Amino acid sequence: MQLRTKPSRRPPLLSLLLAVAAFLVATANVQTAAGADSSDTDQTATDRPEHVQQDKDKDPGKHSGDKLPEDTSNKHVGLEFAGYNDSDHISVVTPSVNAGIDNVSGASLSASYLVDVVSAASADIVSTASRRWEEVRQAGTLSGQYKPHDFGVSIGGSVSDEPDYLSYGVYATVIKDFDEKNWTVEFGYGYSHDTAGRCGTGGGCTPFSVFSRDLQRGSFNGTLSWVVDRASLASITADLIIENGDQSKPYRYIPMFAPNVAPLVPKGASIDSVNAHRLNERPLEQLPLERHRAALTGRYAHRFDGSTLRLEERFYDDDWGVVASTSDARWILDVGKRIAIWPHGRFHVQSGASFWQLAYVSDPSGWDLPEYRTGDRELGPLWTAEGGFGVRWYVGSDADPRSWQLGLTGDAMYTSFLDDLYLLSRTAALGALTLEAQW
Fold first, then answer.
1. Domain count, the chain
2. pTM of this structure
3. Which positions ≥6 away from 378 have C-beta within 8 Å?
4. Which one of 9, 85, 176, 285 is separated from 137 by 20 to 30 angstroms, measured CA to CA?
5. What is d(CA 56, CA 67) in angstroms, rounded to the nearest whole number?
6. What is the pLDDT along the chain (439 residues), one digit of tens a residue?
7. Domain for residue 201, yes or no?
8. What is the CATH number of the domain that holds 109?
9. Domain of residue 302, residue span
10. How far apart are CA 192 and CA 189, in angstroms?
11. Backbone phi, then psi, for 15, in 5-degree steps?
């Protein structure tokens, strides 16, 4: 599908983001007194160089031979080309760019932009007699932080646009350090608004004013980070997300079965088998209009001689009945001064939503539909195992090898769907190539 210009849908967020960017860029160039505290946004980094600000002439215009103030800001820019492909005939190509600047004054600014090019002919699409479709999504983020000493504030926003979907959001976080930065507490709130529409097979899209579904999301989060010892860092994060609106997909039709047929439908039933045994009626998906999510995440990083171990565990629960656990680990090994490599492993397991059914039942004599129904297998019971590798090559000068970095990651995933039509499993591969520079 071609991207369409939709000026009437654009939120005032872009103007706000530009204003924030101008303010933060100006702030980042304000120099504080010598000895001001530096601020790091990455609390798990094992190498945190201190920035020393040089003394400045209090009257730079007094002598014609005085030099301009030294630039004490750090800049970075990165490019990434990522790809995804799975056995359900879905592929995604994602080029992206990000940039940032931070100053010893405690001000920082970062931005990113990406394009998702999606091509899909999944079982869900084929089951509705639809052809392969392609779509392009554009997304951008902008964030800034000001943390001159042990207290700081960060704000940010995001916009995502595709032919039949528009999303924008903002967030704010307060940060407080204690005990000479051995303990850090963060509290944040975010708000986002999504609007889903519908496009036809010919590429034409219905205006949002004619057909649209809105979703509002409020998220609360709190993080406690601490220095365990000279070589270890740890953190605990709690998230609460409240969603209101219709998340049902306007393209997803649900096959219905007679009461005497539904118990006989096997797991992984083929498209032909489902079409042969289902009822003629095929209603659209319908999900609850509210969802409350909660998650608790623990992270731990330890620096050994020549390597770093990073562990993460996340527990998740919501009032739709989905309970999940996600474990993630990577061990970063230094190979000399210029190369780091790491293995990566991840395991995810979840229960299905309370309204999930392999085969939904309806009365053959009329539309007697269940209140909630879905074909989204990500709401069903499943488990996923993932493994891969990563390598980073520091290609900068001998004085500063990390000023230029090349990165390559690759992962393979296997998902087992425990109670689903069409698919019993899915394999996928994803990878990314990155180039980063900092000065």
1. 1
2. 0.81
3. none
4. 285
5. 10
6. 333 333 334 444 444 444 444 444 444 443 333 333 333 333 333 343 333 333 434 444 444 455 656 778 999 999 999 999 999 999 999 999 999 999 988 999 999 999 999 998 888 877 765 667 789 999 999 999 999 999 999 999 999 999 999 999 999 999 999 999 999 999 999 999 999 999 876 678 999 999 999 999 999 999 999 999 999 999 999 999 999 999 999 989 999 999 999 999 999 999 999 999 999 988 999 999 999 999 999 999 999 999 999 999 999 999 999 999 999 999 999 998 999 999 999 999 999 999 999 999 998 887 789 999 999 999 999 999 999 999 999 999 999 999 999 999 999 999 999 999 999 999 999 999 999 999 9
7. yes
8. 2.40.160
9. 7-41+73-438
10. 10
11. -65, -40
Nearest to 55 by CA among 29, 34, 30: 34
Give a yes or no: residue 54 inside a domain: no
Residue 46 lies in a domain: no
Name the residue among 210, 164, 220, 161 with its Cα closest to residue 189: 220
Does residue 59 sit within a domain? no
**DSSP β-ladder status, 404-417 and 183-196:** unpaired
373: exposed, middle or buried (C-beta count within 10 Å: 0-12, 13-18, 19+)?
buried
